[in-house]
Specification:
Blueprint (H helix, E strand, L loop, with lengths): L5 E6 L3 H12 L4 E7 L2 H11 L3 E5 L7 H15 L5 E6 L5 H9 L3 E4 L4 H12 L4 E2 L3 H10 L16 H11 L4 H8 L3 H14 L5 H10 L5
Parallel strand pairs: 1-2, 1-3, 3-4, 4-5, 5-6
Protein name: Response regulator transcription factor
Organism: Ruicaihuangia caeni
GO molecular function: DNA binding
């Protein structure tokens, strides 16, 4: 049985950039380009009409930025009880406050706008499969970003509900280790690690591993 192609929407205020990404996506047999928008307000309406699987969202745009657009798209999908589209934020900087705000608002990760085409395509397929993506080097940038702040909020009470094993796996995931790497280090199966990660996300009310990493650095739980 042939799988339906992954439906992709692109939101960016630069027409030339949109044209290049559209050509890239159209060249892939498992991807389908279903629309583009030049600002966040257009994006909200487009996603409502096209119901894409993945949205490539620029952060800085006129009329409405990518952060607010992401929040509105996620809220609208939640309100109607439909599956949330996966949003990949596109940014010029490796990590800044706007990127972390977008992640908190519902994005499944972020990439640099000058990422290699192969990496962008892999990211689309990765988020569609339910995982999260972060630009290479972003874990280090997260550390620098949150270390630069004078104070850090205390972890919520839900963090204390993690078991000792869950806390160990949380910290390893926060440092960027994959399930396979955690499994090898902790002498567990990948399936067991995946189960633990799912429980951690549920207890902390986090959507995915990107939010887990942000949570860890925001509360200074990783050193």
């Amino acid at each position: 049985m042939t799988r339906a192609p992954i439906r992709v929407v692109l939101v960016d205020d630069q027409a030339l950039f949109r044209a290049g990404i559209r050509m890239l996506i159209d060249s892939q047999p498992d991807l389908e380009f279903v629309g583009e928008a030049s600002d966040g307000r257009e994006a909200v309406d487009l996603v409502e009409r096209a119901r894409p699987d993945v949205v490539l969202m620029d952060i800085r745009m006129p009329v409405m930025d990518g952060i607010e657009a992401t929040e509105r798209i996620v809220a609208a999908a939640s309100a109607r009880g439909s599956e949330l589209p996966r949003v990949i934020v596109l940014t010029t900087f490796d990590l800044d406050e706007a990127a972390t705000r977008a992640i908190r608002g519902g994005a499944s990760g972020f990439l640099l706008k000058d990422a290699a085409p192969e990496f962008l395509l892999a990211a689309i397929r990765t988020v569609h499969a339910g995982a999260a993506v972060v630009a290479p080097g972003a874990t280090r940038e997260l550390l620098r970003h949150f270390d630069s702040r004078a104070t850090a909020p205390a972890p919520p009470k839900t963090f204390s509900t993690l078991t000792s094993r869950e806390r160990d796996i949380f910290l390893l995931a926060a440092r960027g280790l994959s399930n396979a790497e955690i499994a090898e280090r902790e002498f567990l199966s990948e399936a067991t690690v995946k189960t633990h990660i799912s429980r951690v996300l549920a207890k902390l009310a986090l959507r995915d591993r990107v939010q887990l990493v942000v949570f860890a650095y925001e509360h200074r739980l990783v050193v």
